[in-house]
Write a structure and sequence with these properties.
The complex is a heterodimer of chains A (about 350) and B (about 325).
Chain A lengths: L3 E8 L9 E8 L4 E5 L6 H9 L6 E6 L2 E2 L10 E4 L11 H11 L4 H15 L14 H14 L4 E5 L7 H18 L2 E6 L2 H7 L2 E6 L2 E6 L1 H6 L4 H6 L6 E6 L5 E4 L2 E4 L10 E6 L4 E4 L5 E10 L4 E7 L8 E6 L10 E6 L5 E3 L6 E3 L1
Parallel strand pairs in A: 3-8, 3-9, 6-7, 7-8
Antiparallel strand pairs in A: 1-2, 1-4, 4-5, 9-10, 11-14, 12-13, 14-20, 15-19, 16-17, 16-19, 17-18, 20-21
Helix pairs in contact in A: 2-3, 2-4, 3-4
Chain B lengths: L2 H27 L3 H34 L13 H8 L1 H32 L5 H13 L2 H12 L13 H8 L13 H27 L3 H9 L4 H12 L1 H16 L3 H6 L9 H11 L3 H31 L1
The chains are: A alpha+beta (about 350), B mainly alpha (about 325).
Chain lengths: ~350, ~325
């Protein structure tokens, strides 16, 4: 077991000026499940590949435990990786796939067989040990890829979007399995995904990346409640947080249509505009003058929830859209004018010029 | 016939071909539906079947039939021609040479091609390096034979006479006596085989290089994480991944080698104990006037090629399934 530390680690791909990963500082605790999340091209996979040794570290360094592994060969880092495509060896059986690393390391046959057997039992693969990967379903292949990592009992697991090739239902089930398996094995895990739901549900902590720069690292709940900036606020949560850029008058009041929201004391804006962040679940229906006036354009009924999509009505003819969770038993009708009152304690304030959170 | 006339004839033939295809397509287009599909298929198959019957099946059967007849083709002699092939000492040399060709060429050519493909893979000069080794493929067997005849050329080792052959000149530089590469048996057969390897290695390299590039990058990376080094990568990842391509290359070169004729014909004419089955078949049929023995040799060649072709086709099919 070991910790993982990125110290100013950067990777610049040849022929590109902007670093794919820019001075990443990140400490991952022993046995921790850390999820790297971000939109595609944000550098999250590059981070993982740097840790695994598949990409060089151009600046800074990476430590596993106290050992600087920046220049250590991938096979000597004591890391196991689960690939998005699983990368199983097509000409080997499931058992051979899982035991391959041990075979290369020259371990005795009995030991390999025992360890493969143990991992197969954990993953419910005992009946498939003699099959070739092409004779397995997608979910089974995914488990073999997990098994190949487990058999090695490495210091760190690296997982690169291991669920993205599964169908939606299987993905949800496997998500829970991987998370509980990781808790049981207590192996430090770095998990890359573009899916913020996976990040929120699986990680002990979540790290959000954008354009190669770390935006925020925090526990899922804390990340949800107090995002550092507008990017994190918009990225975490589904449906996404409503972020409305609105004018702020001299008396410190933001204007959403004819509804006024007082800017919290101490919040400093660089201009005369503020970005108001409101989660869809933090609205209540109210009367005229007490909430944001909204024309209902669409209602999505999910059974347990209903989400209304509406356009904010103001004199300036703004086109701001707003999403709010409403009572699924009695959702408003399409075309209706309603008033949505945000719960003041849940409103977040951002400076639209810098994107940083200023209050709330 | 002068040149103009020849061209006119050629254009007439092409025009006739276009007309026939046009008529077939026109007739086929008039039928539709399930029954129509059958008729269309038939319309396209019939000419092919007809041509194969006239050009391949009938001569093939006729050759097998002839192989049981005497030199002039007028008396039935049973399996005598076949006993000659396996009994006569000259013919046994032919068989021995063919075995040497078929055993050595595919394996060496494939090994050279594979090694080369791995060495130049992702190198900066890959395209140029591959073009160089692929170039011999563009030369006809006869052309290659003539080139190598010069490489092996020998002049009597007397004062005042200079060697014009590349290899002998090199031997002279090292102070060694020039050798008669194409005359001293059995090494002369090996020197002929080198020419075939020179041609086929490029083919092997091209096919295998494509197969190596088709190995998913993920699998190579997974192997690196699993602790595999260069040799292990070759043994556990590269070779098993390209196994179907390897077998196709081996068998394709094997088939080509079994039928080798041009190289032997142009370089030694089958003299000095270098003849192979295909060359002997030609010599017996068209030089010595022994139709029966020639036909028997052709039949033997056919029998030897069939299993390799069958294996090749099966391998192609199973590699498609993967």
């Amino acid at each position: 077991m070991a910790t993982v530390t990125f110290e100013g680690a950067s990777r610049v791909y040849p022929g590109s000026e902007r670093p794919a990963v820019d001075s990443l500082d990140l400490h991952i605790g022993d046995g921790e499940f850390l999820v790297l999340v971000g939109p595609s091209g944000c550098g999250k996979s590059t981070c993982l590949r740097m840790l695994a040794g598949l990409e060089p570290v151009d600046r800074g360094r990476i430590l596993i435990g106290d050992r600087d592994v920046s220049d250590v060969a991938p096979s000597d880092r004591d890391i196991a990786m689960v690939f998005q495509t699983y990368a199983l060896y097509p000409h080997m059986t499931v058992a051979e796939n899982m035991g391959f690393a041990l075979k290369i390391a020259g371990r005795p046959k009995d030991e390999i067989r025992a360890r493969v057997q143990d991992a197969a039992e954990i993953l419910d693969l005992t009946d498939y040990l003699d099959r070739k990967p092409k004779a397995l379903s997608g979910g089974q292949r995914q488990r073999v890829a997990m098994g190949r990592a487990i058999v090695r009992s490495p210091q760190v697991f690296c997982m690169d979007e291991p669920l993205s090739n599964l169908d939606a239902k299987l993905r949800v089930a496997t998500r829970a399995q991987i998370a509980s398996l990781q808790r049981r094995l207590a192996v430090t895990t770095v998990y890359v995904t573009h899916d913020q739901v996976e990040a929120m549900t699986m990680g002990d902590r979540v790290a959000v990346l954008k354009d190669g720069i770390l935006q925020q690292v925090d526990k899922p709940r804390a990340m949800y409640d107090s995002p550092n900036n507008m990017f994190v606020a918009g990225f975490i949560g589904s449906p996404a947080m409503n972020l409305l850029t609105v004018p702020v008058t001299g008396d410190g009041k933001a204007h959403l249509g004819d509804f006024e929201l007082p800017l919290p004391r101490g919040a400093k804006l660089s201009g005369d505009q503020a970005a108001v962040g409101m989660r869809p679940e933090n609205f209540s229906l109210t009367g005229a003058g007490h909430g944001v006036p909204v024309i209902v354009e669409l209602v999505e009924e999910l059974g347990s929830d209903a989400f209304l999509h509406g356009s904010v009505q103001d004199d300036a003819g703004s086109k701001d859209l707003i999403v709010a969770r409403v009572n699924p038993q009695a959702p408003p009708a399409k075309g209706e004018l309603i008033h949505l009152a945000p719960a003041p304690e849940h409103v977040l304030w951002f400076d639209p010029a810098t994107g940083e959170r200023v209050a709330g | 016939m002068d040149t103009t006339h020849k061209f006119i004839t050629m254009f007439e033939a092409i025009g006739l071909f276009v007309a026939v295809v046009g008529v077939i397509l026109f007739l086929a287009s008039r039928f539709s539906g399930r029954k129509g599909d059958r008729i269309v298929a038939l319309a396209f198959l019939l000419p092919t079947v007809l041509l194969i019957s006239v050009g391949l099946v009938y001569p093939g059967l006729k050759t097998i039939y002839q192989s049981f007849y005497n030199a002039a083709g007028d008396a039935f002699i049973g399996f005598d021609n076949y006993s000659t092939i396996f009994g006569d000492s000259d013919q046994r040399t032919v068989l021995r040479n063919t075995v040497l060709w078929v055993v050595i060429t595919p394996f060496i050519a494939t090994a050279v091609g594979l090694l080369y493909a791995i060495l130049v893979d992702k190198a900066r000069v890959e395209a140029l390096a591959k073009a160089l080794i692929f170039l011999p493929m563009a030369i006809s067997f006869v052309g290659a034979g003539i080139i190598w005849k010069f490489v092996y050329a020998f002049r009597p080792d007397q004062p005042g006479i200079e060697q014009i052959g590349l290899l002998n000149q090199i031997l002279m530089w090292f102070g060694m006596a020039p050798k008669q590469f194409l005359i001293d048996t059995p090494l002369n057969t090996i020197f002929l085989i080198v020419v075939m390897i020179w041609i086929q290695a490029g083919f092997a390299m091209t096919v295998l290089s494509a197969a190596i590039k088709a190995i998913p990058e993920d699998i190579v990376e997974a192997a690196r994480l699993d602790g595999v080094r260069a040799w292990g990568m070759f043994r556990y990842v590269t070779v098993p991944s390209i196994r179907p391509a390897l077998i196709v290359v081996l068998t394709t070169i094997g088939i080509g080698t079994l039928k080798v004729f041009d190289i032997v014909r142009t370089m030694t004419g089958g003299n000095f104990d270098t003849s192979v089955v295909a060359n002997e078949f030609y010599s017996q049929s068209f030089r010595s006037g022994n139709q029966g023995l020639g036909a028997a040799l052709a039949t033997l060649l056919f029998i030897l090629v069939v299993p390799i072709v069958a294996y090749n086709v099966r391998q192609l099919r199973s590699s498609d399934e993967r």
